[in-house]
Amino acid sequence: MGEKRGMARMLLECSLSDKLCVVQEQQYEVIIVPTLLVGLFLILLAVILWLFIREQRSQQQRPGIREPAGLHEVQDFVGRIQFYQYLGKHKNLVQLEGCCTDRLPLYMVLEDVAQGDLLSFLWTCRRDVMTMDGLLYDLTEKQVYHIGKQVLLGLEFLQDKHLFHGDVAARNILIQSDLTAKLCGLGLAYEVHALGAISSARTIPLKWLAPERLLLRPAGIRGD
């Protein structure tokens, strides 16, 4: 036991002045790294790791950032802009306010409708008396019929252009502060205009389907 303890002591006895250490009667060079440098290295490593994790999380939280659009997507986007231009102006359709098609990035600006979609608006009215423009507002039955009539006017406008909406639902109707109703969600109408029919990949919640559609009959103006 005495010899082993002596050997252990021998392994730890190093001369820092000449950076030599005697272990089992042999000399080894000892590299002395100051504690401060070790601390700085660990801090730098921690910062790099933190930046890496933050970048990974940032990429996960940005689902809207995609690869550049392909030719088909660009053509489809431009086609939708041209479709809004073809429709023209109507007070019960969401209006195209502006667009850019001659240089990147392509974009279109649609009309802002303050109160959002009709579905959320009706649920808000049911929960409590709501306010619009700072005034207490309580939706009456007569005003509900007034909103429905405006939706019909928008559908008639589409019918005059030999189009149909195909997905008339409260979520696709927007409401302004003066209770003006505006149809939106014209994706199916665009497909009818561009392709002559609705894509087979299109699915609509059963809750909002017309009886004819539930019977698997073709979509059309009567369904609206």
From TrEMBL:
PROSITE patterns (alphabetical): PROTEIN_KINASE_DOM (PS50011), PROTEIN_KINASE_TYR (PS00109)
This protein's UniProt keywords: ATP-binding, Kinase, Membrane, Nucleotide-binding, Receptor, Transferase, Transmembrane, Transmembrane helix
GO terms under cellular component: plasma membrane; receptor complex
Highest taxon of source: Eukaryota
Membrane-spanning intervals of the chain: 31-53
One GO MF term: ATP binding
InterPro entries xrefs: Kinase-like_dom_sf (IPR011009), Prot_kinase_dom (IPR000719), RTK (IPR050122), Ser-Thr/Tyr_kinase_cat_dom (IPR001245), Tyr_kinase_AS (IPR008266), Tyr_kinase_cat_dom (IPR020635)
Domain Protein kinase: 1-224
Gene Ontology process terms (BP): cell surface receptor protein tyrosine kinase signaling pathway
PANTHER family, per the entry: SERINE_THREONINE_TYROSINE KINASE 1, TYROSINE-PROTEIN KINASE RECEPTOR
Protein name in UniProt: Serine/threonine/tyrosine kinase 1
Source taxonomy: Eukaryota, Metazoa, Chordata, Craniata, Vertebrata
